[in-house]
Amino acid sequence: MENQANTLFTSFDADEVTFFADLILPIPVPKLFTYRIPRGMADLVKIGARVIVPFGKKNSRVLTAIVARLHNSPPANYQARYVTELLDEYPLVNSYQLELFRWMAEYYMCCVGEVMNVALPSGLKISSQSKVQFNPDFDYPELLTEHEEILLTELKKQPALTYDELSRLAGEGVNIAALIKSLVGKKAVIVFEEIREKYVPKMIRKIRLHPNYEEREQLLVLLQRLEKLPKQQEVVMRYLRHVPVQHNPALNQKGLDKTILNQDDELSQSSLQTLVKNAVFETFEVIQPRFADTSAPQGEIRLTEHQQRAAEQIMARFDQQNIVLFHGITGSGKTEVYIHLIQQALAGGSQVLYLLPEIALTTQIVVRLQRVFGDKMGIYHSKFSDNERVEVWKGVVSGQYQFVVGVRSAVFLPFDNLGLVIVDEEHETSYKQHDPAPRYHARDVALMMAHWQQAKVLLGSATPSLETYYQAKQGRYGLVELHHRFGDATLPNILLIDTKQEKRQKTMKNEFSSALLDALEMNLERKEQSILFQNRRGYSPYMQCEDCDWTAECPNCAVSLTYHQRDAELRCHYCGHKEAVPRLCPTCGSTKVKTIGFGTEKLEDQLQVYFPSSRVLRMDLDTTRAKDAYGQIIREFESGSVDMLVGTQMITKGLDFDNVSLVGIFDADRLIHFPDFRATERSFQMLTQVSGRAGRRAGRQGTVLIQTANPHQSILQKIIQNDYKGLYEEEIQERQDFNYPPFSRLIKLTVRHPDKAISQQAAERLCAELTDALGSTRVLGPEQPLVERIRNQFLFDILIKIEREKVNIKAVKAYIQDRINDILTDKGLRQVSIVIDVDCL
Questions:
Q1: Do 466 and 516 belong to one domain?
Q2: What radius of gyration, in Å, describes the C-alpha atoms of the chain?
Q3: Residue 263 structural domain
Q4: In a shared domain, residues 457 and 581
Q5: Which one in 454, 543, 673, 748 has a CA-CA gap of 20 to 30 Å to 337?
Q6: Which residues lie below 8 Å from residue 545, measured CB to CB, with a gap of 6+?
Q7: Which Pfam family, an example, fits this chain (predicted)?
Q8: Does residue 641 sit in the same domain as residue 702?
Q9: Which of 437, 434, 441, 439 is nearest to 357 (CA)?
């Protein structure tokens, strides 16, 4: 019992009278805060529920917190403040999630409040940054209290006021959160920004006949009475055609969407309003699920012989191991196998989570999944509005969604009965969050979540990460392989184009080899589609003066500005700085300022020049900022109205287009020679994945052209031969020789400060202290990264390599944290910040 009391998250005796709660606040502090629960709430507050609390000096901030523990022991070191308001009748965060928050904070060396802040959609959080404005439609002043009248008087004078400002106006002793909640309930004010996205159900207005006219006799009397009012009679007849009340009066209770009756003309709208006013019709509102899908599920899918065998092997492995790696080549039909397994899990009454690495990938797969599962499936990713994400969150709690497909943030959803977790394209770096903390990897978090709920995990990839494949080869994971493409389609024919030779022969046209241009032209003649991959967005990576070598650089970061032609501006892809394109060189005044290199925007522009009658689309971060931009691009390309798709790595991941027969790859050498120990692995993964987009239809082999200055590189030969195992054998030996993952754990510490000397001083001191305790073979650095300054902060990296065997990793992390705290509490170094990245990529 004593151990239970000391754990971060504990349950409590339901019969015990409790007056205190330990709360998780969405702020980066290491400990929980204890608040007093008002006696009126004592029986209502539950672990996992959200509450609103004051925080800061003089209660200057309002925060949403999660109840982590209930007890009757007041804090020893401070006077507990009161919980202001209870937001949930039933908990929206379950015990598995609370344990996950705790584990992530410990493992990724951050604060549990930071985990909470990332885990909960902002629609479930209220903060003092929320703003309030007067509702111009409000006209019932008799409903207001004295305090409410004071606030509304001020709100009418201002565009909007914050919680803090309203709290000062209301004066001491006034519960500002309760006051604003009351005003919102009376529709006197509108709350927006963070709180604006607090979940509001989507409502649709419907209309139905007044109950007086449901019976046949009264309905006939009504129609006779309206004979002299033909427009109104037509509206009633239109309603009866959609809702045959005369045959079944009970249908009238469901009503009809109001837009159906008044969509034809303005006269019908006016007539409908009159009929409502005269109590012939009555209006009402119903909640409309945002993910409603009216199409009927298709039921079971049919697997090919190879897919069926793979599914059976996966189930057999699950009988022995909880984690299975499904290594299936590109185009082998892994998705169909996933669907089959999902159906089995759902039939057994379990929940299923299907993780995808990229929003672009969800667009196409979701359509396929909805054909099978209909509106029983939830969708969760960052392009959705917060209301939509909260609806899925609540749908999981209520049981509406037993199956959710989503990107990395979906691991935080409140599952409590997981049976199966699928991590598709498990090798993808998109699963790793880089900012803010926690800097987690969704695949690894999913493995822990599944472990606690005793769920099975299927890791799928055509090019698994070396760490995952190593675990499978060691027998820790099950391994199932599928080496046949779906429908007997064949792997594409991969050819290497020697750009050095083409440049010597002067057959290159800008960035295009003659071989690639010829292949594109032939593809157009055959009315087949092409994909062109360049992993750099923008028009050109930088601009330079031919006379003095001036280069446009970001004032905040040690990086050149990328030229974006469409918007006629230079942009920094690190801090977002933008500036106009100079007409003359700022240094020497020369007019010879030119662009150097190329990105996706430049390729798109050149394709329009070489093939003016073709239709070209571009998919990169710049063209997909809008909510449905991914879907729109994919639908257009899928329809066949687009001839060529140019894009960055987001086009490499699992997209399935039957009519794509050609893939062109630019700048392969830059990927291969990137200074990172994972460069070879990632080059193989990326180039193999994008190559797999070609020739996915049976009976037609696709073609892949890779432009390179060195066709004899070993990695390119392995890509041509689809030799993943050969790549693995070479790379795993190097990893072992130099003690890199999977043989070690990596922790990267990045020291940042606006003054380079201070940043370097802090990094060198931290590195020396860590080296003294851990040894020079485990601590590397400090060194400046490739981009040494970002957002006016100078960076120094320290890399720590810890063996996986025979080392107490918790003790090592605790020691690292203590040394970091020493730096951060030093008076001369207090402005230094240190970013901790566990399992860095």
A1: no
A2: 31
A3: 203-287
A4: no
A5: 454
A6: 551, 585, 587, 588, 590, 592, 593
A7: Helicase_C
A8: yes
A9: 441
Q: Are 99 and 414 in contact (CB under 8 A)?
A: no
Residues 333, 431 within the same domain: yes
CA 593 to chain centre: 39
- Residues 523, 642 within the same domain: yes
Cα angle value 758/759/760 (rounded, 5°) = 90
User: pLDDT tens-digit profile of 168-212?
Assistant: 787 776 777 778 878 887 888 877 544 333 455 667 788 888 888
- Residues belonging to the binding site are 545, 548, 554, 557, 572, 575, 585, 588
In a domain, 460, yes or no: yes
Tens digit of each residue's pLDDT (9 = 90 or more) over 272-310: 888 888 888 888 877 665 555 444 455 567 899 999 999
The one-character DSSP state at 149 is H
Residues 6+ away with beta carbon under 8 Å from 330: 462, 485, 491, 688, 689, 691, 692, 693
Number of domains the chain is built from = 7
Cβ proximity of 509 and 610 under 8 Å: yes
> Strand (E) positions, 57-102?
61-71, 85-86
- The string of DSSP letters for 581-650 reads PPSS-TTT--S-EEEES--HHHHHHHHHHHSTTS-EEEESTTT--STTHHHHHHHHHHHT--SEEEESGG
Q: What's the rounded mean pLDDT across residues 585-600? A: 92
Taking the C-alpha atoms of residue 373 and residue 295, their distance in angstroms, rounded to an integer, is 9
* Partners of 753 in beta bridges: 794
Round to whole Å and give the CA distance between 536 and 445. Answer: 30
Q: Are residues 322 and 459 in the same domain?
A: yes
Name the token pair of 178: 């309760």
Q: Which long-range contacts (CB under 8 A, 24 or more apart) does 447-452 make?
A: 447/323, 448/100, 448/103, 449/96, 449/100, 449/411, 449/415, 449/418, 449/421, 450/322, 450/323, 450/418, 450/421, 451/322, 452/96, 452/99, 452/100
246-273: string of b/e by CB count within 10 Å (b at 16+)?
eeebebbeebbebeebbeeeeebeebbe
Distance CA 412, CA 118 (A): 9
**Known binding positions for Zn(2+):** 545, 548, 554, 557, 572, 575, 585, 588
pLDDT confidence of 705, banded at 50, 70, 90?
very high
Helix (H) / strand (E) containing 579: strand 578-580
